[in-house]
């Protein structure tokens, strides 16, 4: 049923493009349409759930347009390309997905959020959008007074096929307007925006990766219950209790070296196919930051936004960094494209290696010194002697406030301490020889 819907949507898009091309070939090129500048309201259909999102368009034509997704205070910008005279292609930057949309005669747009990963099936979500609608869930004037204020920290117990740790919700409510972020061991949801209507609430977010929605009910005892929808057929139930002392498992203790190990060892190809190892002279006597990431992973992107400028500022202090990317295809050629896009967009000046297919079990097999691999991203910090000094699971972005500030403070403190430690004598001689040979 769902596949038929997606196929029909795609057929309509292609038919529109073919008709436009035929008209042009007949000597009657159609007038090129473009979407109006200003704020829009879009709606995805995930299974049977409606997921609203907002975006803004600036620019009168595709060549100059900027497409901006709006989520609370967060802004994510994307470029627009034209397909034919009445269809648009909006690539989700470093995520291998895009919005493909047809401009309808009435000024609305309709289309799909589509995976661009070669051979990846079933990852399409239909959407429609209308111009000039700035609200997300409820039209102005139709709000229902909320029965409670959800501002605060909530512990969410999630019911899943696999046992998962509880999540933490940091919520802020002002009248009917609700904003917040959901944290879990893998990272955070990025900023969410929504509403409270009576004893019901909704939060949605779409920043480039798959859209998400959190829907729930405020119970008589002050607890909440609801469900999370993220991607096709991915629905989970949750219960929540307000608890200012609620915390996630310690991200510094989830992943560690197995007994008997002090060091990490690996060899992976860089984006030119050259094997790179921690035993290479480049890393001897240096503090090394290892990032296990994937371009499909929003928390990995946020971590890159943090690390890349930090490294560019500190790279002359005796520190190196390596990103090991695990991608949605086990193909170096594909990784050269996806990881290359990541490198170029965020000015990454440290080595980027290709680890293989994005699968936690595969990461564990390729980094056997780890007790287990819990989450993308994972940060591994190695001292000048080559010993692993710290492993941090996941990443909490700036929207998490104090959690991000604490992470940044501890990261900088540890790196300052490790950089200040003396380099081993052998490494110092090796580095001196390398400098003399330049």
Automatic annotation (TrEMBL):
Residues 1-25 form the signal peptide. It comes from the Bacteria. Keywords: Signal. PROSITE patterns: THIOREDOXIN_2. Residues 257-416 form the Thioredoxin domain. GO terms for molecular function: antioxidant activity; oxidoreductase activity. It holds the Pfam family AhpC-TSA. This is Peroxiredoxin.
């Amino acid at each position: 049923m769902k596949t038929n819907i997606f196929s029909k949507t795609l057929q309509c898009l292609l038919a529109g493009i073919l008709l436009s091309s035929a008209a042009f070939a007949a000597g009657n090129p159609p007038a090129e349409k473009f979407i109006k500048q200003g704020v829009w309201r879009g709606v995805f259909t995930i299974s049977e759930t409606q997921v609203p999102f907002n975006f803004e368009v600036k620019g009168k034509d595709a060549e100059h347009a900027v497409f901006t997704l709006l989520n609370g205070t967060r802004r994510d910008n994307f470029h627009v390309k034209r397909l034919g005279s009445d269809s648009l292609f909006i690539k989700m930057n470093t995520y291998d997905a895009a919005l493909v949309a047809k401009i309808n005669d009435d000024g609305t747009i309709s289309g799909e959020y589509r995976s661009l990963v070669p051979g990846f099936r079933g990852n399409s979500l239909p959407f429609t959008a209308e111009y000039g609608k700035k609200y997300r869930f409820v039209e102005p004037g139709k709000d229902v007074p909320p029965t409670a204020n959800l501002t605060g920290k909530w512990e969410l117990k999630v019911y899943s096929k696999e046992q998962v740790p509880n999540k933490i919700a940091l919520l802020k409510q002002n009248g009917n307007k609700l904003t917040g972020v959901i944290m879990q061991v893998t990272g955070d949801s990025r900023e969410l925006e929504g509403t409270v209507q009576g004893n019901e609430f909704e939060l949605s977010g779409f920043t480039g990766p798959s859209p998400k929605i959190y829907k729930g009910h405020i119970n008589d005892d002050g607890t909440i219950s609801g469900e999370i929808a993220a991607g096709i057929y991915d629905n989970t139930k949750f219960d929540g209790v307000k608890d200012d002392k609620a915390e996630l498992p310690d991200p510094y203790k989830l992943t560690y070296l197995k007994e008997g190990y002090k060091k990490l060892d690996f060899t992976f190809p860089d984006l030119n196919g050259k094997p790179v190892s921690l035993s290479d002279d480049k890393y001897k006597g240096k503090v090394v930051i290892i990032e296990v990431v994937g371009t499909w992973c929003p928390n990995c992107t946020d971590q890159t936004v943090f690390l890349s400028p930090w490294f560019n500022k500190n790279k002359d202090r005796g520190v190196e960094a390596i990103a090991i990317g695990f991608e949605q295809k086990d193909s170096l050629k594909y990784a050269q494209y996806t990881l290359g896009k990541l490198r170029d967009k965020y000015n990454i000046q440290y080595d980027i290696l290709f680890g293989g297919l994005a699968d936690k079990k595969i990461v564990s097999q390729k980094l056997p010194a780890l007790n287990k691999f819990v989450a993308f991203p994972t940060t591994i910090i190695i001292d000048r002697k080559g010993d692993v000094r710290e492993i941090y699971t996941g990443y909490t972005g700036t929207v998490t406030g104090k959690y991000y500030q604490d992470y940044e403070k501890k990261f900088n403190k540890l790196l300052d301490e490790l950089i200040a430690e003396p380099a081993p004598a052998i490494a110092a001689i090796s580095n001196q020889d390398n400098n003399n040979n330049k």
